[in-house]
Amino acid sequence: MNKIAYGCLGIVFASCTTGQVLAETATPPDPTSYIPSVQPTRITADEAPVIDGVLDDPVWAKAAVIDEFWQVAPELAAPSEKTEMYFAYDSEALYVAIMAYDEQPEKIINRIMTRDGEVYRDDMIRFYIDPYNTGLGGFGFDVNAQGARADRIIQRGRPPIDEWDTIWDSEGQITEDGWVLEMVIPFRSISFDPENSEGWGLLITRELAHKNEEIRWSNIDPGVNKFDFRQPGRLVGIQDIEQGLGLDVELLGTVIANRDWTTTPRDNDIRLEPSANIYYKFTPSLTGLLTLNSDFSDTPLDARQVNTGRFSLFQPETRDFFLQDAAVFEFAGDTFSRSPNGRPFFSRRIGIVGGQQVDLSTGLKLSGELKGIELGVLSAKMGEGNNLDSQTLSVARASIDVLDNSRLGFIATNGDPTGNTNNSLIGSDFIYRTNGLFGGGFMQATAYFMRSLSSLGDDDSFGAKLSYPNDKWSWEVSAQQIGEDFRPALGFVNRPGVNDYNANWHRRFRTTGSWYQYWQIGSSHDVVTDLNGNLQTRKNSLNFNLDLATTDQVNLRAYEGEEVVMTPFSLPTGIIVPNGEYSANGFYAMLRSSFSRPHGTQSDITIEEYFGGERFKFKLNGSVRPSKFWNIDLTWERDDISVPNGDVTVNIYSMNSTVNFSSDISVETQAQYDNISDAFSLFSRMRWEVRPQTEVFLSAGHGAIIDYDTFPRDFESLQTQFVLRFGNRFQF
To answer: What is the pLDDT of residues 512-564, one digit of tens each?
Structure first.
């Protein structure tokens, strides 16, 4: 018997021998009222465990233990495997250990090794905390069976922000009884309210990938998303925490070598660019961040997109400075999750102008909570660029809990990245939530108002949304108006001068012991008019979704609609779509295979009427993960459009691969090409995490123009860049 087994016998013998029998005969509690809690054991600094994935530290014998977990997928029931978690803390960090029992340890899926990799494909644990107990989001820590880590910002109604990073550590290993894990989260690495008497919101989810089973400690309603903090458990009793001086200094030294292939003779450039990020906690729940000569060399390539429609495209934020406490700046709950049109603040406006990166010489951010007010302030000074003067851009956001289940917020922005206008925005939002409807169903109501002030004209935007996002029945209705001159320079508006109405619903039917987990049917309805009520867009969809017991998913959608073009626009090759009324009927299908397989796909197809012609669009995706040391993902997107004035075909090819030398050293490579711009991009980066606070980064990038018809003969290089960066974060 190995060391881990002895640890189990010595520390938790009773639970090892009797807990599984009790769990198998237990009846799950009522999901609408079940709120478990855990109070970690206080220890001294010299009792802190060594994070090595071996449960032989004496501290675990005295730690607080939880072992009441419940299966939520494929059904709400007792779990097939027992899970035990141990909690302790000292003045500097929270320590967590997991004993994840498994009767078939040889089948445990353990293919991801990369830091910030797709650990959700493996047998893993999700450990999510909401230190402010807002119910809207928090910090996420994902760890698989061998201790591979991924951290993220959780935002209600929006996808998690996976690009966020902080300092923490974990180690794990597979044993003859299942797998074990140890992790440490320094209190200096997160923001929190030390005076919160209700404790922190806590979600714990165990994913048994090889069984397609999901087990949770709290939030055990199968219809509630695993990222949703609407009814979390509680992490209570953490007090007398020391955060030192609350000062973190991250120093980075970057060597950049460039070659411009378009000049004769070649233009070579080598330069050293030091940068720094300085963090200071004014209180345990309020953090200031000063960035100097910000370094974005590790930012991955944006997903390649080609615009074939009337309105500009949206790209999510990926830069670390703007992701720090990004959830604090979100406005009006999940109102803009369906469409970003009308967002008051979009951080990519800062440092990216006209698609070109502009240096960020100085940036200052203040985020967290002060005397019950959630606060976010950001001000950044951009350097000069091509035909651009230096600009100072700012945003401030504040929100406070009012009444019993409500939240009132305010936002203000100032500045225009282009320098062409004097521009600012003010706005307010109100969110009400309740769990008391229709037998415990959750409902949220949101309303907001904004006004943009510009030297080109002032205007308003306002809207409201009522949603009932529950498992069996789910519905929402919303209405939004965006003024013709509502153009916040630090926001995102790609369709001004409209009234936008939306309604959707679905009914879900769950089953047990079948080849599928659930199927659902519903419909969605969208109407967009101009401010005089004249129709611009109408779309009515009938939706069908099937989630198999193997966790494969099938989505089908049939729709009818109409598009009214008031201003002619051009397709990518210059083909003009004239004014007119056009039918927009079509069909969409999507297949996503289970994440647990070593190979898979997430592919879709669209067939529709398109501005007087036809459109056939598909995305074929294939991924292969033969081992934890190597994986590759290939995607081909093709869009065939035929309209009365001509035809256009768009092809986009992309490749993402990862080679892992260890859990601390990996090489990720991206390659992209599209036939419209003929632009080819290659970006490869090596990341070596020497220790959680020390990193070495090496990247190589190459840009080229390729003639689609004559490749590989015609390959015109544009630019090559090599980057070597050393960084260390000092905590005081």
So the answer is: 888 998 999 999 999 999 999 999 999 999 999 999 988 899 999 999 999 99
Structure tokens at 396: 């401030």
**Whether 230 and 316 share a structural domain:** no
Rg over alpha carbons for the chain, rounded to the nearest Å, is 26
What would the 3-class secondary structure string for 128-170 be? EEECCCCCCEEEEEEEECCCCEEEEEEECCCCCECCCCCCCEE
pLDDT given at position 243: 64
Other beta carbons within 10 Å of 530: 14
The pLDDT tens digits of the residues spanning 368-426 come to: 877 778 899 999 998 887 778 889 999 999 999 888 778 899 999 999 999 999 999 99
Which of 235, 265, 295 delimits the end of a domain? Answer: 235
User: Cα torsion at 48, 50, 53, 56 (round to 10°)?
Assistant: -70
Q: Is the pLDDT at 463 greater than 50, yes or no?
A: yes
Residue 274 CB partners (closer than 8 Å, separation 6+): 251, 252, 253, 254, 293
Q: 303 in a domain, yes or no?
A: no
The distance between the two most distant Cα atoms of the chain, rounded to a whole number of Å, is 78
- Enumerate residues 6+ apart whose C-beta is below 8 A from 590: 553, 554, 555, 556, 602, 603, 604, 605
More confident residue, 638 or 164: 638
Query: Is 383 part of a structural domain of the chain?
Result: yes
Quick one: 14 and 152 in the same domain?
yes
What residue type is assigned to position 150 of the chain?
Answer: A
Residue range(s) defining the domain that contains residue 379: 312-491
Looking at the structure, tell me whether residues 75 and 201 fall in a common domain: yes
Tell me how far CA of residue 125 lies from CA of 34, 149, 312, 510, in angstroms.
21, 10, 38, 25
Q: Which of 381, 379, 382, 380 is nearest to 356 (CA)?
A: 382
- Of 97, 71, 104, nearest to 178 by C-alpha is 104
CB contact set of 396 (below 8 Å; sequence gap of 6+): 376, 377, 378, 411, 412, 413
Output the six-digit token pair for 535.
Answer: 């129709």
